[in-house]
Design goal:
Elements (H helix, E strand, L loop, with lengths): L7 H4 L25 H24 L14 E6 L3 E6 L4 E5 L14 E6 L6 E6 L4 E5 L4 E4 L11 E2 L6 E6 L4 E5 L4 E4 L11 E2 L6 E7 L2 E6 L4 E13 L2 E12 L6 E6 L3 E6 L4 E5 L18 E2 L6 E6 L4 E6 L4 E5 L18 E2 L6 E6 L3 E6 L4 E7 L10 E9 L14
Antiparallel strand pairs: 1-2, 2-3, 3-4, 5-6, 6-7, 7-8, 9-10, 10-11, 11-12, 13-14, 14-15, 15-16, 17-18, 18-19, 19-20, 21-22, 22-23, 23-24, 25-26, 26-27, 27-28
């Protein structure tokens, strides 16, 4: 009969989820060719002990294991910005929650929302993205519609982006929206300081991009040959403790050391790339401690994230953290953990990655400035991290939730979060 107390099982937990845990136990050696049956059996028992330890540790966090009655359901995709979260629903409408001081949720009032609210006038949407001052929706006919004060002159009205057709992907950042069309042409739309939006401009330097991401002052594109090219801020030089100078380029520059890349994701000052083999490499000033980067030269080198294997998606947001969805449908995160961005029940920063507590059937993951969300296979959504503006969607505002909580359609009493 196995123990149920928080003793040896918790201490053996991989990536120990509780602050009071002892240092991580040594991991068992991998099974190798020629291993004896006894050795294989010992490895299996050790793996089983680790699984039981994780379960015990997660139970101690008082996680929500069953969706509440009022859980948001029928979600197709999610997008996160600076204190705001949006979801494309099965009926192709959009719902958003969190901040709205600049019309990020497509509504004229500036009040935040702690539960999902429909964005009026948005139908037939295939994808949505949102950032600091505005959001955009890609419709199934390939057109793009944007809203928020980022359109200029305090406007929070919707506006169709002119001269864009056959768009297949969009990426919204603080200052612009990028659109990649079905012909692999990349377009940049930068709102101006008037209610009339200017026309998007084509990037003539790239003609074979398959995916693009944009954040703050840098942009990266994945090309058909599996290489990554970036422009804007393309490097950092440490000039003192927590001080950096930047190196910029107006034309795309290849990120050295990266090949066979299938996805790229950008944070405010860092970037990550997922390779075909399931590994993830990052660079920049956002997550150096997690990667063991302690000197200035390492900041510009794409470095593998320790412990991340079999990744099927990578996500970065405005903050200094990133997450990956693994093949087993669990999620790991790395980087800053001040507001519980890693979702492991703590606020400790660690070297390497931490498994997000309680997630086991995830379809997609997304990162915002200080929060993250997972879209589950059943169409529900669970979020963690900062909740000052209701961006977790659990019906309340709070400093933070250190573990995932369900997004709900209405308040139903106190949310079972672990908040500081």
């Amino acid at each position: 009969m196995r123990e149920t107390s928080l003793s040896w099982h918790v201490r053996l937990a991989l990536g120990c989820l509780l602050p009071m845990c002892a240092p991580r136990a040594a991991e068992p050696p991998p099974a190798v060719a020629g291993a004896t049956a006894a050795q294989l059996g010992e490895t299996a028992r050790t793996a089983e002990e680790a699984r039981l330890a994780r379960e015990d540790a997660e139970r101690a966090l008082n996680l929500e294991t069953v969706p509440p009655v009022h859980a948001l359901r029928g979600v197709r995709s999610i997008a996160l910005g600076f204190g705001v979260t949006c979801a494309v629903m099965d009926d192709r409408t959009v719902r958003c929650w969190g901040r709205n001081d600049q019309g990020q949720r497509g509504l004229p009032n500036g009040e935040p929302a702690t539960t999902p609210v429909p964005v009026p006038g948005l139908t037939d949407v295939s994808a949505v993205d949102v950032s600091h001052g505005f959001g955009c929706a890609l419709r199934r006919d390939g057109s793009v519609l944007c809203w928020g004060e980022g359109l200029g002159s305090g406007s929070k009205r919707f506006a169709a982006v002119p001269n864009l057709t056959d768009v297949r992907q969009i990426a919204v950042s603080t200052y612009r929206m990028l659109a990649l069309d079905k012909g692999a042409a990349l377009w940049s739309f930068r709102p101006v300081s008037s209610n009339a939006a200017n026309a998007p401009i084509r990037n003539a330097s790239l003609a074979d991009a398959v995916q693009v991401d944009d954040n703050w002052d840098h942009t990266c594109a994945l090309r058909v040959d599996g290489t990554v090219w970036c422009w804007g801020t393309v490097g950092h030089v440490r000039s003192g403790p927590d001080q950096f100078t930047t190196r910029s380029s107006d034309v795309p520059v290849r990120v050295e050391g990266l090949k066979n890349v299938v996805e790229v994701a950008l944070g405010t000052h860092h970037a990550c790339a997922r390779r075909r083999d399931g590994g993830v490499a990052c660079w920049g000033i956002g997550v150096p401690e997690a990667l063991g980067q302690t000197d200035g030269a390492a900041l510009n080198k794409a470095t593998d994230v320790p412990g991340v294997e079999n990744a099927v998606q990578v996500a970065s947001g405005g903050g200094s953290f990133s997450c990956a969805l693994l093949r087993d449908k669990t999620v790991v995160c790395w980087g800053r953990n001040t507001n519980g961005e890693l979702g492991d029940g703590t606020q400790r920063s660690i070297r390497g990655s931490a498994r997000v507590a309680g997630l086991s059937d995830v379809r997609a993951v997304a990162c915002g400035l200080e929060h993250a969300c997972a879209l589950n296979e059943d169409g529900t959504v669970r979020c963690w991290g900062s909740n000052r503006l209701g961006e977790l969607g659990n019906g309340v505002t709070s400093p933070a939730s250190l573990v995932p909580v369900y997004v709900v359609t209405e308040r139903a009493g106190a949310a079972p979060s672990v908040a500081r």
